[in-house]
Specification:
Layout: E1 4-8, H1 12-24, E2 28-32, H2 35-44, E3 49-53, H3 61-74, E4 81-85, H4 92-98, E5 103-106, H5 111-137
Parallel strand pairs: 1-2, 1-3, 3-4, 4-5
Length: 142
């Protein structure tokens, strides 16, 4: 089953382009124009990753990440988040990390590198889950 990626960006053309490109790469893509809409979408279906523009209003990408992380944890999920920006500003990476985002990506995105990051993160999370499941099952019975 393909991974579901939530894209939140207030730029319709950019959001549409990302959807088209990620769909073509086999991801299931859901989109939202605002952070509030993104939270609503995520509450209605499981999301495997979020790709969020930082500069939106009234809820910016940082506020979305903070609320989404809380919403996901309450549902027993740990969902990776990436923040996107057209302009790298001082302190952006630290602020993104403080709200749980893995990386700040600069627009225009390098799609190859972005998809590689998604796949690496999905693979690592799967490996950690499998290791935890093996540890929880204990030693094999004789």
């Amino acid at each position: 089953m393909p991974h579901t990626i939530l894209i939140i960006d207030d730029n319709d053309a950019f959001r549409g382009m990302l959807r088209t490109v990620l769909d073509a790469r086999g991801y299931r893509v859901v989109v939202a124009r605002t952070g509030a809409d993104g939270l609503q979408v995520a509450a209605q279906q499981p999301i495997d990753a979020a790709l969020v523009d930082v500069e939106m209003s009234p809820m910016d990408g940082f506020e979305f990440c903070q609320q989404f992380q809380e919403q996901s944890k309450a549902a027993g999920r740990d969902v990776p988040m990436w923040i996107m920006t057209g302009v790298l500003r001082p302190g952006l990476t630290k602020r993104a990390a403080a709200v749980g985002a893995l990386v700040v990506l600069r627009k225009p995105l390098n799609i190859e590198a972005t998809c590689a990051q998604f796949e690496r993160e999905f693979r690592q999370r799967t490996e950690r889950a499998e290791s935890a499941a093996e540890a929880d099952s204990g030693p094999p019975s004789a």
